[in-house]
Design a protein that fits this description.
- Helix content is 21%, strand content 32%.
- It is α+β, with helices and mostly antiparallel strands.
- Strands 1-3-4-5-9 form a 5-stranded antiparallel sheet, with no helix packed on it. A 3-stranded antiparallel sheet has the order 2-11-10, with no helix packed on it. A 3-stranded antiparallel sheet has the order 6-7-8, with no helix packed on it.
- Strand 6 and strand 7 form a beta hairpin.
- 20% of the residues are buried.
- The chain binds FE2/S2 (inorganic) cluster.
- The site of FE2/S2 (inorganic) cluster has 12 residues, from loops.
Length: 185
């Protein structure tokens, strides 16, 4: 025969467990969208690249070669183009940024400044002539090659077209992070 004292104790305990389970279900339902939104906000690579227009065969004007030091020191440039969505055109918006280096007469190296690890912006460290990602410390040489192996690949190079008038045009592309190979977004 069961002890009436045990039964009296078990009822509120069962009720408490039921409430806890309900709270967990409701909490998960309410918080999941926020968690997904937070992940999207915190990880830039979860954001798909928005379409832009104004490129000539995919190339955007970035700078004139005369703006690049003969020493080969990288210079950071924003790329601007018109952003488009289903209803609107947003004129002359920054769509990304690159480092350009003059490697020789008429030869320019373009490196995307997005870290191939998890998408933070890579910074130039002129004092030690390297690039450094502030998020997790990925470190790269000035030609983009990895020094540390925190990121799965070196910095992403971009196609460059140096025109007769000295205009430096870059084919702006973004690639998935966390992969050893470049996979365009
Ligand atoms: S995002 Fe650059 S090191 Fe992690």
């Amino acid at each position: 025969m069961s002890d009436p004292l045990d039964a009296a104790e078990a009822t509120p305990r069962r009720g408490f467990l039921k409430s806890l389970a309900t709270l967990a279900i409701v909490g998960t339902a309410v918080l999941s969208p926020f968690a997904a939104g937070l992940a999207f906000f915190l990880d830039p690579l979860l954001k798909r690249r928005e379409p832009f227009r104004g490129a000539e065969n995919g190339f955007l004007y970035v700078a004139n070669v005369s703006q690049l030091p003969a020493s080969g020191e990288p210079v950071h440039f924003a790329l601007r183009a018109d952003r488009v969505d289903a209803w609107n055109i947003f004129r002359n918006r920054t769509i990304g940024s690159v480092y350009l280096r003059l490697m020789g007469p008429g030869i320019v190296l373009a490196l995307n400044d997005i870290c191939p690890h998890l998408g933070c912006k890579i910074e130039l460290k002129p004092a030690d002539k390297t690039f450094l990602c502030p998020c997790h410390g990925a470190h790269f040489k000035l030609d983009g090659e990895q020094i540390t192996h925190i990121a799965p690949r070196s910095m992403d190079t971009l196609l460059v077209d140096v025109r007769k008038d000295g205009g430096v045009w870059v084919k702006y592309q973004e690639f998935e992070g966390g992969k050893t190979q470049k996979v365009e977004l």
